[in-house]
Design brief:
There is one protein chain. The protein contains 24 helices and no strands. It has helices at 5-26, 36-41, 48-59, 62-74, 81-103, 109-116, 119-153, 161-208, 216-226, 249-252, 254-265, 267-274, 279-295, 297-300, 302-312, 323-327, 339-347, 352-387, 397-415, 425-433, 437-449, 455-473, 481-503, 524-543. Helix 4 (62-74) packs across helix 7, helix 8 (161-208) packs across helix 9 (216-226) and helix 18 (352-387) packs across helix 19 (397-415). The chain starts with a helix and ends with a helix.
Length: 545
């Protein structure tokens, strides 16, 4: 099914709506210039529902729609642990980390490192994060998004990918450069409604085409019956994908390292919470996002399993012409990551296809805009302001932030096409981020909750974490990368403890953070939400164990 005139009109209407809202929110009020707080923290005015929606829109991108659907094809529902465990992680972050961050009045996560340890470590981490956002996050989202659009709208042979990369980059830049976090967050509210609706529509229509006679429930029953091994959350050791998701380790091991690092100390995620009206509003926003995370596997993982069933063609499956040729590369390997765009191209009817492609684009563009804003925030506040800026009134910070957005995007556009050879992009992103994230997480956890940790311990710990991670990665004994992350984090914490104890001049570091019990007190609504999420997770893991 091609892309019709009606589809183009619907897609154009979406693009016009997002640009109009983004530019309207970006307008100057009473002719005043935007301050750094206006541009980077949306004037600290976001309500909980905007925070929750923006968190999900920033998080859900081509990485999930394309990469996680591809892993759904290859692995099955077990990959949903990244989403379902993230819901619990958001509750932990809201209760134990947010109160400290908001009380410190932070613009960026590296600023916490400066307040707790020293400027040198802050600068090291700021440079690392800017590099990570540009060379891993922005490039992967641009490439996967362009690959999806090439499959749906282009020839599917990759010839249009560079054009789509440039188009997505320009679209994200059109409103995020001028408006900052305020434009990004408020357009995210629209984007998240669209991407959730579009995701459900794709899943339901795909299920309706699984069997020859059709029917959504018949399709669901068929994929569960014929691909039952794809519906286990906890993989056994003999499963070929055990190295990616090591059984019970996803509940008690390295998945916690990946999730706490991402949701607790990732600038482009936590920046929304820092822009809240109040701490209670921020905590409710994270709880709202946690509920949305529970829904995501329904429209980012299930489509991958549907594509797997259609590809393998077990008895009772609708015959799909050319399905093998569509998924197989010239070398005979399976191209997992075209699962979601292939479903859209093959089954979504005229008119609805424009809406679904708009939803996919919304996921891509909202993440790009979020990453760009956070890259600019860290560069401007943690590198430019302390080392380069000569204006004490901060009037140059917003213009520099806008330039940083343009430069970051230009570099990512040039690098993105180089990712063409990756088999499972979602796993690639997790694995290579996992080389550096355990050491950084160890520094934050020790800085937050152990008063004796000092700057020397933190610096030596984070530097030593890289060779430790690489050593574990390339040991002759095969080890799942999530286990590598857990061991790296634990070893780094031991290094920080040892160095701090050997070099400490006082019982407690002078920069340690006092943590009275009141710090972690939460409101009634948040507590009810937290218990509800925990109960839902227990049911999900019991049913799909």
């Amino acid at each position: 099914m091609g892309f019709s005139t009606l589809d183009y009109i619907i897609f154009a209407a979406y693009a016009l709506l997002i640009l109009s809202v983004g530019l309207w929110v970006s307008r100057s009020k009473n002719g005043e210039k935007k301050s750094a707080e206006d541009y980077f923290l949306a004037s600290k005015s976001l309500p909980f529902w905007a925070i929750g929606a923006s968190l999900i829109a920033a998080n859900i991108s081509a990485e999930q729609f394309i990469g996680m659907s591809g892993s759904g094809f290859a692995i099955g529902l077990a990959i949903a642990s990244y989403e379902w465990m993230a819901a619990l992680t958001l509750i932990v972050v809201a209760k134990f980390f947010l109160p400290i961050f908001i009380k410190q009045g932070l613009f960026t996560i590296p600023q916490f490192i400066e307040k707790r340890f020293n400027t040198n470590l802050k600068t090291i981490l700021a440079i690392f994060w800017v590099s990570l956002f540009i060379f891993v996050n922005l490039t992967s989202v641009l490439f996967l998004g362009a690959k999806a659009l090439d499959t749906i709208l282009g020839t599917g042979d990759g010839s249009m990918i560079m054009y789509f990369i440039i188009g997505l980059a320009c679209f994200a830049a059109a409103y995020s450069i001028w408006g900052g976090l305020s434009a990004v967050a408020w357009t995210d509210v629209i984007q998240v409604v669209l991407l959730v609706a579009g995701g459900f529509i794709t899943t339901l229509i795909a299920l309706n085409h699984v069997t020859p006679d059709g029917g959504i429930f018949a399709g669901l029953d068929h994929i569960y019956t014929t691909a039952g091994d794809k519906f286990h959350m906890i993989l056994k050791r003999d499963n070929p994908e055990f190295m990616n998701l090591p059984g019970i380790g996803v509940l008690i091991g390295g998945m916690w390292v990946a999730n706490i690092y991402y949701w607790g100390f990732n600038q482009y995620i936590i920046q929304r919470a820092l822009a809240a009206k109040s701490l209670r509003e921020a905590q409710k926003g994270l709880a709202f996002a946690a509920f949305l995370k529970l829904l995501l596997p329904l429209f980012v993982v299930i489509p991958g399993i549907i594509a797997f069933v259609m590809f393998t063609q077990p008895e009772g499956t609708a015959i799909i012409d050319g399905v093998k040729a569509d998924f197989l590369r010239p070398d005979g390997s399976v191209n997992f990551d075209i699962s979601y765009p292939w479903l859209i191209k093959s089954f979504i009817p005229v008119g609805i296809k424009g809406l679904v492609v708009a939803a996919l684009s919304a996921a891509i563009v909202s993440s790009l805009a979020s990453m760009l804003n956070s890259t600019a925030t860290i560069f401007t506040m943690d590198i430019y302001k302390p080392y380069i800026s000569k204006k004490t009134d901060g009037s140059d910070l917003v213009p520099v932030g806008r330039i940083a957005v343009i430069v970051s995007l230009a570099i990512a556009v040039l690098v993105a096409p180089a990712l063409d050879t990756m088999p499972q992009m979602f796993q690639y992103i997790q694995e290579y981020t996992g080389v550096v994230s355990p050491g950084i997480l160890a520094v934050f956890l020790m800085g937050l909750f152990w008063k004796k940790s000092n700057s020397k311990g933190a610096i030596i710990g984070v530097i030593s974490s890289i060779p430790v991670a690489l050593l574990l990665k390339f040991l002759p004994i095969e080890m799942p990368f999530l286990d590598q992350m857990m061991y790296t984090c634990l070893i780094t914490m031991v290094v920080i403890i040892m160095v701090s104890l050997l070099t400490a001049k006082t019982d407690e570091d002078p920069k340690s953070i006092p943590l009275p019990k009141e710090t972690f007190k939460t409101g009634k609504n948040f507590n009810i939400a937290a218990y509800a999420i925990l109960l839902i997770l227990v049911v999900l893991y019991t049913v799909f164990w």
